[in-house]
Design a protein that fits this description.
Layout: E1 9-10, E2 17-18, H1 51-79, H2 93-101, E3 108-110, H3 116-121, H4 126-129, H5 131-134, H6 143-146, H7 158-172, E4 178-183, H8 190-202, E5 206-212, E6 215-216, E7 219-220, E8 240-245, H9 249-264, E9 270-275, H10 294-302, H11 305-315, H12 321-342, H13 363-384, H14 408-419
Parallel strand pairs: 3-4, 4-5, 5-9, 8-9
Antiparallel strand pairs: 1-2, 6-7
Helix pairs in contact: 1-2, 1-11, 1-12, 1-14, 2-9, 7-8
Keywords: Oxidoreductase, Pyruvate, Thiamine pyrophosphate
Domain Dehydrogenase E1 component: 71-349
Region (Disordered): 1-39, 380-420
Length: 420
């Protein structure tokens, strides 16, 4: 009911009209929308597990081990010049893997630039997941075939996209839920507000996963918001808010699974805040020691998602040494394959730069494509008439060779990566 729809009344004496606001009540009860006071956890709580949950926890552990190895390998490839940039999700693997496993096959994932691990855990080829960060293509995989939106490098722009897709699916009667991932820094963007507002008004089947890893590059959360938590922001939009320990992978999976089921049943969107920590720097171009200390990082190293789940599985006798070694071996095989394939230079066509931008190329794009073809033709003609280079010289490398990093510690890690 709006203010215009309120009917002014009279007080008991009939002398003065009753203010329209006298009968005001909240449009919705805020209590069910508020998050719990403490983050939801499962590990270390003695939670009872049936056969299905035991298998799920083992699957999560396999995903975390593979994810940690994937992060290490991608970081090494960046040092070796095989990736232009890599925003690592080391320490956040619990969120990444749980998000991918919480979705049904027909659902959609909307990742940010830090969520390549979630993309891989969803089933996308690791090389294709890294193609954008290599600088080779707009995206390396087919979003329609994989039901994974392209990695979003602009902050939070994927959130309204997720809402739009989810709303359209609902209008068509499709059984589809969209899960959109974003960091705490992205919640400071206008797109975050617009996405939650539209999702709530339309009751779109969408779940927002905020990985609160403590920093928006170098800006701590305390300098971004004064809210009790990011999850508390949900109530202002009429959205349910949930708070979970982001390094407790089974807990993240359960909370996200409940949110996905809720959205699928037509109960509307959910905002999930997962408390985690970005163990490594923002990217390879960042120096995290300039804005945080080792003392701050240490407690989170002890709260590692891989180690937490492994300890729980061993305590419950759900993981043996042989099984752990086999999973580690599988992860090494994956890393070796990724390393070998990323060390092969792709054959690229610069004219493909204009493909898949618009369904019908604009006049400006067509003009730019003509200019590019002219430049390529001129370069080819110049190469054909160029004098041959003298022999005996050292050819200039266009990519840094493995192990050629400036920092001795980086060289040691690269050596370990190549020896894997």
């Amino acid at each position: 009911m709006t203010v215009l729809e309120q009917t002014p009344g009279r007080d008991e004496s009939g002398a003065r009209p009753t203010p329209p606001t006298a009968g005001w009540r909240p449009r919705t009860d805020p209590a069910p929308l508020l998050p719990d006071e403490t983050p939801f956890r499962l590990l270390g709580t003695g939670a009872r597990l049936d056969k299905r949950r035991k298998e799920l926890w083992r699957e999560l552990y396999r995903g975390l081990v593979h994810g940690r190895r994937y992060n290490r390998q991608a970081t090494a490839l960046t040092r070796q010049g095989r990736l232009a940039v890599y925003p690592s999700s080391t320490g956040q693997e619990g969120c990444e893997v749980a998000a991918a496993l919480a979705l049904a096959e027909q659902d959609w994932l909307f990742p940010s630039y830090r969520d390549t691990l979630a993309v891989v855990a969803r089933g996308v080829d690791p090389v294709e997941a890294l193609t954008l960060l290599r600088g080779d293509w707009h995206t390396g995989y087919d979003p329609r075939a994989t039901r994974v939106a392209p990695l979003s490098t602009p902050l939070a722009t994927q959130l309204p996209h997720a809402v739009g897709l989810a709303h359209a699916a609902r209008l068509r009667g499709d059984d589809v839920v969209a899960l959109a991932m974003v960091g705490d820094g992205g919640t400071s963007e206008g797109d975050f507000h617009e996405a939650l507002n539209f999702a709530a008004v339309w009751q779109a089947p969408v779940v927002f996963l905020v990985q609160n890893n403590g920093f928006a590059i170098s800006v701590p959360l305390a300098k971004q918001t004064a809210a009790p938590s990011i999850a508390h922001k949900a109530v202002g939009y009429g959205v349910a808010g949930r708070l979970v320990d982001g390094n407790d992978a089974p807990a993240v999976h359960q909370v996200l699974g409940e949110a996905v089921a809720r959205a699928r049943a037509g109960a509307g969107p959910t905002l999930v805040e997962a408390l985690t920590y970005r163990i490594e720097a923002h990217t390879n171009a960042d120096d995290a020691t300039r804005y945080r200390s080792e003392e701050e990082v240490a407690p989170w190293l002890a709260h590692d998602p891989v180690a937490l789940l492994e300890a729980e599985l061993r305590q419950r006798r759900l993981l043996t040494d042989t099984e752990a070694e086999q999973i580690a071996h599988e992860a090494e095989t994956m890393a070796a394959d990724l390393r070998a394939r990323m060390n092969t230079d792709p054959v690229l066509d610069p004219e493909e730069l204009f493909a898949h931008v618009y369904a019908e190329p604009t006049p400006q794009l067509r003009e730019q494509a003509v200019l590019l073809r002219g430049e390529l033709a001129a370069d080819a003609d110049a190469d054909a008439h160029a004098e041959p280079e003298p022999t005996g010289g050292v050819a200039r490398e266009t990519r840094r060779a493995p192990g050629s990093d400036d920092h001795p510690g980086d060289r040691r890690q690269d050596h370990q990566e190549r020896a894997a």
